[in-house]
Each structure stands twice: as structure tokens, then as C-alpha cells.
Amino acid sequence: MGKAWGFGRHGGPEVQEFFDRPDPAPGRGEVLIRVDVAGVNPLDHLLRSGPVDGLDGGRPFPRVLGMEAAGTVLALGEDVNGLEVGDAVFGFALTGGGTYAETTVLSAPHTARIPEGLSATVAATLPVAGTTAVDVLDQLGLPAGATVLVNGVGGGVGLAVARLAVGRGLRVIGTGSTAKREHAEAVGARFVDYTAEDVAAVARALVPDGFDGIVDLAGGSSLRTVAPLARDPRNVIAVGDMSVPDLGGRFVERRVDRENLERSARLALDGLLAPVITAVHALSDAPAALAAVENGHASGKIVISVA
Questions:
Q1: Of 58, 103, 234, 243, which has the maximum CB count within 10 A?
Q2: Buried b (16+ CB within 10 A) or exposed e, 211-226
Q3: Residue 226's pLDDT band (boundaries 50, 70, 90)?
């Protein structure tokens, strides 16, 4: 039996609980891993709050929270290629196994080996934030010297996008609350504080001809404020707000396969995708880790150290 943290039914934080569970058996196309580090993401509490098509794996309650992890392969299911028992790996729990646990199952096609020189802590941040940053910037395809606005720059994905964009030679403007300034400026973004400044006015002053691309991580009214700042509305890419086509923009096209994980790991080794990890919690402190993300006050990336 191993410790896990999850939820006994859909709802708010009140449905969360610690419980013991046997090591899950890896099914076809899955690997069982000992979890060393789990990443914490907004998607975690969204999955707790209600069903999300294709992501709960049809597993019974209680379900384990978490979508990304790094650890060591303990066993292989059928039809697993390219991975072996004992491999240090990182990837997605796309079949509902969860990652806030001592052991879990990852989807093998969405899992990759951790390259030598990359820590499990960094690797655990790459499945969601790292590959999203690669995807949005590839989708925009902007040349060096172009301007990009990262709306909601202060979280794990926003800072990853900003750092990678700066590494590609882009001029980056990032919006966020006051507490996010230090980390945004540290990765090379020009920061605009939406709590103290008129974002649209400041952005227009900085880039009078309009932005070559906008990456939106805030959604809602904030997306509607910044979308008109793009020179071409098709270059407004939203990560969370599915209504972006109504504004002429596009939703991010996600690639969560092994190839993109390996690419993100190489970028991390080169320092171009180094995550800004602001807190490392023990599994026993998982409630505080998720609460920080759910209430929107977290800067950078939060992880849970399980090992």
C-alpha cells in the first residue's frame, strides 16, 4: 500500500483526502513508476471540480490528483516500447492514475526518459508547462526580433513561455499582478502590472504598431482586453480560454507525445526552458501546494517531492 492524495467525489477543496492504495497495475500502454516529484497545475483542481472528457480514465473514486510526474519505472504493461524497468522517466498520467502518490501509472507514449544531467524536479515541470511553451511558440512561428505579449506571465506556463521566447530572440512583454514582477523580469520580460497600470495603454505605448503575437494564459475579460493589441488576430493563442476563436484567435495545439517531451528536456538542459520553481512541498503538504495554485497567488512552478 502506498500513500496518495486525491478526492472522493467531484467538488471543491472539501472533497480532498489522503488515502492508501495498492500499487496500480500498469495496463496496456502504461508504465508503473515510483513517483519522485509531481508537478502541480491548474488542471488538477479543474479535474477535481468536475469531469473532463478523456482525462479521468474512467477510474473509480477515490481518484488521485495530478497530471505530471518524474520517477523510476517499476513495471511495464503490454505493448510498451522504448522504456525499461529502472529507467528514470517523466511524463503524463493521461489515463487517470494521478501523480500525487508514492506510485502511479503513466501513459507510455506520453512518457520519456530523463536525460543525464537533468534533475527529476526539473523534469516533473516539463510535461505541462514545458511542452505548452514549446507548442504555443511553434504555433506562432515568430522570427527573432518580433514582439510577443504573454498575458498572465507569472505562473509556471507563462514564465516558461517568456523564457523560451527570449531565448528565441523575441521581445517579450508580460502582464501580471505585482507579486509576479520579480520572476517575470528575471526571465527577460518587460513587466506590466495590471493591478497598477492600464495594460492596454501601456502595451500600446510600448508596441505602437501592435504585437506580432499574443499568448493568453488569463482568459476571460483579460483576454478580451489584450486581443485587440495583436496586429493579426490569428496570432492570438489561448491556452485555457476556449472562446478565443470568437475573437479571431486560436486555441493552442497541444503535442504531448514522447518526441515533444524529449525536445523540452533538451531545451531544459540547454537552459532555454529552465523552470522557475518557487516552492517544493512534501506529499503531506500537498493541500497547501494545490491551494496556492487554485487561489491564483502562486508565482512560477510548484512541485511536490514524494520520494
A1: 103
A2: bbbbbbbbbeebbebb
A3: very high
Alpha helices in the chain (DSSP H): 42-49, 120-123, 131-140, 156-167, 181-186, 199-206, 220-226, 258-269, 286-294
Q: How far apart are CA 242 and CA 78, in angstroms?
A: 36
Burial class, 50, CB count within 10 angstroms (exposed 0-12 / middle 13-18 / buried 19+): exposed
pLDDT, tens digit (0-9, with 9 covering 90-100), for 8-62? 999 999 999 999 999 999 999 999 999 999 999 999 999 999 988 777 667 889 9
Length of the chain as a residue count:
307
In the 8-state DSSP scheme, what is residue 201?
A: H
Distance CA 243, CA 252 (A): 12
Residue with cell 507514449: 109
CB 115 within 8 A of CB 265: yes
Distance from the Cα of residue 15 to its chain's centroid: 23
Query: What is the DSSP-derived secondary structure letter of residue 272?
Result: S
CA dist 51 and 59 (Å) reads 11
Helices (H) and strands (E) in the chain, counts: 9, 16
Among 234, 262, 265, smallest CA distance to 250 is for 234
Q: Please state, in angstroms and rounded to a whole number, the distance separating the CA atoms of residues 200 and 246.
A: 20
> Contact 237/214 with Cβ under 8 angstroms?
yes
What pLDDT digit, counting tens, does each position of 160-201 carry?
999 999 999 999 999 999 999 999 999 999 999 999 999 999
Q: d(Cα 223, Cα 270) in Å, to the nearest integer?
A: 32
Of all residues in the chain, what percent carry a pLDDT higher than 70? Answer: 99
